[in-house]
Amino acid sequence: MMSHPKPHPLIIALVATGALGLTAPDALAQTGVTGTTASTTSNVKTKVKKTRYPEINVGEVSKKAKEIALMKAPYSTFTISHEEIRNASPFTNAQSILNRSPSINVVSPGPNGVRTSIEFRGFQNGSFAETFGGISLNDPLTGDITNGGGEGIGRNAIPITLNDIQSVTTHNGIGNPSTNSYNSLGGTIAFEPRQPKKHFGVSINAGYGSFNTFKWGASVNTGTLFGTRTLLSYARNTSHGWYRGSEDQNSNFYLANVIPINGGRTKFHTYVIVNRNEGYTPRSIPLPLLQQFSYNYGYPTSLVHSYDTNTDLTAILGVKSLIGSHAMLGGKVYARINQSSRTSYANPQALSNPIFGKYLQVYFPNKYSTYSSYKLGYNPQQSFGSAEAGTAYENYFWRTSTIGFTPYLKLSLPYNRVTIGGDVNYNVAHDGLYEYGSANMPQIPGYNDRFDERYYRLMSSAYIQDDVHFWHGRVNITPGLKYLYQFTSTTSLASSYGPTGAISQGDAFTSPTVGINVEPIKDLNAYVSWGRNIQFPTPGIYYNALNYPTNIVTQIQPEYVTDYEAGIRYAAPHMGFHGALDAYREDFRNKFQTYHVPGGPYIEENIGTATYQGIELALHQNMGHMVMGRWSLYGNYSYNVANYGAQDSGSNSLIGVQITKVPKDQFNLGVNWRYRHFRLNLHGKYVSAQQLYYSYASGTSEAEAPAYFVMDLGLFDTIPVHHMQIKDVKLGLQVNNLLNRHYFADAYYNQPYPPSTQFPPFLSILQGVPRAIFGSVTVRFS
């Protein structure tokens, strides 16, 4: 019988504290310092006695204040500006724009960000956090953000687009309790919501480019209207993709609303994102077929295809209110919904195809012989003439809903700033895999399903963080303590893999962090930091424990990590220069490893330890006016290595083996040029070779994906008009992969199991975008 999670005392305390603070700010204000409001805008200024620490305000943080905060951070950070986001091409998505940051490698083998893979300091999807407005975008159960793979969120899961964000800041490593989130092992990628403007404005854009890519959209800023500001935006992208079987379309709706009240001392804000994506999911292609045909080759959809639909909703309602001049109380209520569905088709005649058959014999979707040991409730051969025809269609779905609340309190004291906060969220998920002989299939547990499961997860956290300043603000010490808790219940309603039933488990962890930032001389900052954090097990581990109790570690354990950071920053605004250098090391315990049971699903288990370490260097130089126009140069380099350590269990020895898909060397180089209303951007990225993983075995293969270098170009001309309410017209010409390099967006070593001389191993490839040209027009009205 299914066991439901019981409320944890931490949850009750957080909710009670947050509710008290949000409903009774006047009572709490009696303990603060009373200030006189000098402005009715959302950027509140108060006349108070000066202290050694600036007072808190509920308005937008200035660019200068953000720069100072990042200089004082006890870990490495990197920011992508609003201008870079607005000038990105349609072949760049909210994930791939992160490629400009050190130690981040993002590849998208399909248009609109479909099947995007992200690597951050060697950590893969699910082992680092992404947030939007401080709310986690990671799936609470799987930890994934995009490209959930075979199970979990869909391969075309797209929680946010460039249409929704103002800027992005990466916080490398564990970071601080107030900035990190669940799964913050490699780091935290913080997306800032796109903000409504103070003045009325409308913009309309449209563009067309390679691969029959069409993009259009519109945004409306109401300006300050009855004391509130609202932004409404819609963006639509369609593309045939750069190889057959990757056609895709994406629609994105975004709403942002800001309401200041109480003379600007309290501010409500609302953010809503609805994203809908559907299309054919790119399939990996054997390298010999690419060599035989062309780089743009894809399987005929009449032979094999997967059609995915995904709808993602993020809604945040927040409030923050000043208490006197040196305290702020706030909270956010949020909801996230993801619904994914994938229908795959495998033509029964394909296995006998003289060109494709030998490759599809190794891995063929819905191949009945693969599941010959599992019993379906219906007889495919009797119903459709053959076992292959009776399982030609496969439908997998993942539906998850999350509601949560996060309160916080900030205190600005004479020598320090204290932040107290927390989070509680509850998640319900349902997934299933069904097979049939037609696309219009019944979904009856115990009849034509491989599995049908329910998941329930309660997650919570509470933290306190101090930021102590002394020596006139030149020494910052940032200690923090965060408590994390989760309870998961998994119920298998039907399964052809093993027994049905329920299993549940709870985990808790206390995460300490401390950082020291010192400014020994003007404009030079040095820092060191240390911290520990956790990654909770995914539901698949509980499910495998239920169905394969003899094949995995009997005691399911979370991953633990200890992080060490050290670095220096130098900023000389009068010289237009900024530079940063850092080194890190992260040590793991109980690291999860996946392997494949022959003829069955994948299994995860704790196999021991691993070490991730590296260095990061970032430089930026504003050259000012030279010859004609203004120039700026930037570049960054990162060196990352990741290896398995001691092994506790598992069938293969992985001691010292390199972890897959971790490029050791990456560098970015770029130049920006402005002349009057013209702008040019040129950006290049190098990624070194990467070891690849086996598709049907655990560990690292002897194969590797070769190194590559790609370059992108952007040209823009903004023409002032100021006629008939038209403010200006912006023309854009963008070229992705200017040098037309052919490279692997993703790859794996397809090793038949058991090994066969008839079907030798081969590489399966997902191709990166070749040269792509796009032209656009944006008209702004005022």
Which class of secondary structure composition applies to the elements?
Answer: mainly beta
Low-confidence stretches: 1-54, 369-373, 549-554
Morphology call: globular
Query: What is the average of the pLDDT values?
Result: 83
Helix content: under 10%
What is the tally of helical segments? 9
Strand content: over 45%
State the separation between the terminal residues, measured CA to CA: 62 Å
Most strands sheet: 22 strands, antiparallel, barrel
- Give the total of beta strands: 39
Gyration radius, to the nearest Å? 27 Å
Keywords:
782 residues, mainly beta, 22-stranded antiparallel β-barrel, five-stranded mixed β-sheet, 52% strand, globular
Concise synopsis of the structure shown:
The chain is mostly beta strands.
Topology at a glance:
Layout: H1 9-23, H2 25-29, E1 36-37, E2 46-47, H3 63-72, E3 77-80, H4 82-86, E4 104-107, E5 117-120, E6 123-124, E7 129-132, E8 135-136, E9 165-172, E10 187-193, E11 201-209, E12 213-221, E13 229-239, E14 248-261, E15 266-280, E16 285-286, H5 287-292, E17 304-322, E18 327-346, H6 357-360, H7 380-384, H8 387-390, E19 393-412, E20 416-436, E21 449-470, E22 475-495, E23 501-521, E24 524-535, H9 539-547, E25 559-572, E26 577-589, E27 592-596, E28 602-606, E29 608-625, E30 630-647, E31 665-675, E32 678-687, E33 690-693, E34 700-705, E35 708-723, E36 726-736, E37 744-750, E38 762-767, E39 772-781
